[in-house]
Amino acid sequence: MIALLGLVLSAGFGQDRLPPVPPDLPSWIRAKGMDELYYKSAPYNWSINRIPKFARDMYATGVGHSMAYEALASGREAELETTTFERINRILKNPPRLPVDEMALSPTFVRKYGYLEKVFDWAHTLHFQTIDVLAYPGWSDSRKEQELEELWSFYQSEPYALTGLPMNMEYLDSFPYSKGFRQKYPKVNGLFWGYHWLQTVNYDMLYRVPTADQAAQYEVIGERYREVELYDETRDFMPMTAELSPRFAKRFPQLANAFDNLHMLHDNVNDILSQPGLTDLQREQQIQIAIYRVLDSTHRGESEDTLRPNSLHDHRHPPSMPGMGMMVGSDEDEMYMSGMGWMNMSECGHCSVPMPEEEPWGATVTADGWTMSVRCLMCARDMASETPGRAIIRAATEDPKKLLILVSDEEGNWKPNLPNVVFLEKFGEHPDCSGWSRAFTNDSALKQYLVANPEYAGMPGLNLSAWSKLNQGKPDTYRRIDRPNPYKRGGNK
Amino acid sequence: MKFHNLFVVALCFFTASITSAHEGDCPYCKLKLVQNTPEQDNEVVLRFGNKKIEYRCIFCVFKDQKRYKGDLVVYAPSEKVGEPVILKRTDGKWTAPEGAVFLNSFKKHVDCAALSRAFSSSAAYEAYVKKNDLKETKAFTLLEFIDFVVKPAK
Question: What is the pLDDT of residues B24-69, one digit of tens each?
C-alpha cells in the first residue's frame, strides 16, 4: 500500500526517468553493519588544532551535516528551515572544541544509509588528514607533498574511496531529482555550501605557507565564513576546490577532484532525501547509484583521456586546471564563478594576460569570498584594493621556499609575514608585469635581481608602506568575458 | 523623462559597458559598473584608506557607506569629463564643494548611473535635465540627497 502510494505521489515526478541500478554495484554497498576506519598513523595527526578557530569551525561542519541528515532521514524535513536550522546555527556559533562522532548525532540516518556514512566518513578523514599534513610544523614543504601522495594511496586502498578523476559536474547534477534541495531548503543548503566553502578555501591558506603564518589568514577567512558564506543563499553552484584553492588544486588534482566529487555526492544525497514521491526503496537505490557514480572502483583503469563528453565517464578538465571537472557552460579554461562571473583560469584575474608558466608563479588574492590567480604583485594589490573588505595575498618571492603572505585590514593596510620584504614596481606593459612587479625577501635579493636585469637598473626598492599606496588603475589588457550566467535560465544575473 | 530619451541614455551606458576595460559589478547593487566614455564620466570611485572601490552610482555609495568605518573620499562623476565632484566623509560628517547639487530620479535601478549623479552647479544640473528631457526632478543638496537615499523604504 505504501509502495502504491509512493508510485501515485511520484506520478508527476517522472520516476520512470530515475537512473537504473548498475549491474556491477559493489557488494559492500548492500552489506549491513559498520566499518570504522581510522586515520593513517602519523606524527602530524590533529595538527589542525594549531589553528584553534579553524579546527572548531571544521568540527562544527560535521555536526551540521549530521543534524540535517538526521532530520531528513527521520521524516522531519518540514522542520529543516526552522527548528533544525536554528539548532545547527547554535552549534556553528558555539563550535565544539573536539570532533564529534557524526554517527552519534544521526542514528536514524546511519541505520538506514550506513554504506553512505562509510563513504562520507572516509572522505572526511582524507579532508582532515590533508589539513593535518599541511598544518604540521615538523616537516619541510617537499616532505609534506610526498606525504600527501602517500595519503592519497592510503585513501584509495579502501573500497569506499572516491575517484580522484575530474567528473563532469553538469552531468552529476542532471538527474530527475537534481537541484531540488537548494530550491526547497535554501537556508540549510546555504549551510552545506558554506561548509564546503570552508573545506575548500583552506587548502591554499595552508599549502606551502609556513605554519607560523597560517593562523593569521584564518582571521580573514573565518570571519568571512561565519558572517557571509554560511548564510549565502545566492550562490549558483557548490564551491569548487580549484575555484577557492587554485594552487593546491593544480598541484594535487586527485585530491581536489575527490573533494569536489564528495561535495557533489552530498548534493545528490540531499536532493534524493528531500525528493517527495520516492519510496524508501527508490531512495535507497538512488543513493547507492549516486555513490557508485563517484567511486574510485567505478572508474578504475580510466584516465583523463577517457573522453565521453557529458557522461559518467567524462573526465575532461580545463587545460590549465587538472583539479576540476567540466562545469555548466565551461568552455576550455573558461568557467562561471559565483560572485565573479565568467573567468579564464589560464589568465590573470586582473589583467587577463596568460599566467606565467615559469617561476615566479605569480600570486593569489583571496577577498570577498573568492580566490583568484594573478601574474604579479601589482595585479594582486590593485585587485584587492578594488574589493571591499579584508584580503589575503600569497605571492612568490625570489626564493621558491619563501612565500610572501600579506593580510590586509578593511582599509587595505597590509601586514607581511616577511619583515624585510621589499618591492620592485616599474610600471610598464602588462604582458611583462611579472618582470617589473615583484617581491623580494630583503634588499640584497632585490639588488641581485637588478644586477641580473639591467633594464631595471637604478630602480629603488619600495618598502611595504610606499608600495601599498600605489594603484596603477585598470589594466588596458583586461578583457571581460561577457556571457550570461549559465545557471540562470534566460540570461545573466 | 520620455521613454526614447531614457532608452538612448541607457543604450549609451550599455554600449560603454561592453567596450571598456575592467568592468566589474557594483559592490552594492551587483549590476555591472558603467565605464567612462569620451563624452561623459560615469565611474564613481570611493577611496577608503588604500582601497579604491568603484560603484555604479552615488546612490549605491550612500546606501553602502555604513560598511566603512572611517573617513571616505568619493569621486562622483560630474558634467565635466575629468573633473569629478569630490565628496568627503570626515569623522562621520559628509561635505561637498560649495554649489554642488545632486540628481536622483531613477525609477528602476538599472537606470541609476544615468539618473543618480552629481553636478558642480545648479546650472550644470539644469542643462543635464533639459538635455535628457527629465521630468519631475529636484536638485538636492548633499544633505538632502543623503537624507533621501538613506530614508527607510515606504
Answer: 689 999 888 888 899 999 999 999 999 999 999 999 999 999 999 9
Q: Residue A441: which domain range?
A: 347-468
* Whether pLDDT at A15 is above 50: yes
Q: Do A149 and A231 share a structural domain?
A: yes
Grid cell in block for residue A379 = 595585479
A255 and A170 in a common domain: yes
Quick one: CA torsion of B17, B18, B23, B24, rounded to 10 degrees? Answer: 90
- Least Cα distance to A112 among A181, A32, A35 occurs for A32
**pLDDT tens digit sequence for A247-289:** 999 999 999 999 999 999 999 999 999 999 999 999 999 999 9
Per-residue pLDDT tens for A439-470? 999 999 999 999 999 999 889 999 999 999 99
Distance from CA of A389 to the nearest CA of B (A): 9
Chain B residues lying within 8 Å of A474, measured CB to CB: 21-22
Minimal CA separation from A471 to chain B, in Å: 8
The dihedral of CA A52, A53, A59, A63: what is its sign? positive
Report the amino acid identity of residue A117. Answer: E
Quick check: A17 and A284 in contact, CB under 8 A? Answer: no
Residue among A385, A388, A480 whose CB faces B50 most closely? A385
Q: Does A335 reside within a domain?
A: no
- Which residues of chain A are at the B interface, by a Cβ-Cβ cutoff of 8 Å? 341, 385-389, 408-413, 468-469, 471, 474-480, 482, 493
CA–chain centroid gap for B39, Å, is 16
CATH class of the structural domain B3-150: alpha beta
Best of A236, A337, A410 to mutate (most B CBs within 10 Å, chain B): A410
pLDDT tens digits, residue range A202-218?
999 999 999 999 999 99
Nearest to A410 among B22, B24, B69 (CB): B69
Q: Which residue of A has its CA nearest to B32?
A: A493
CA dihedral A424, A361, A196, A89 (to 10 degrees): -10
Pick from B24, B67, B70: CB nearest A386: B24
ipTM of the complex: 0.74
Kindly determine whether residue A413 and residue B24, on different chains, have CB atoms separated by under 8 Å. Answer: no
Based on the fold, state whether residues A284 and A369 are members of the same structural domain.
Answer: no
Taking CA–CA distances from B52, the nearest residue in chain A reads: A386
Residue B35 gets which letter from DSSP?
P
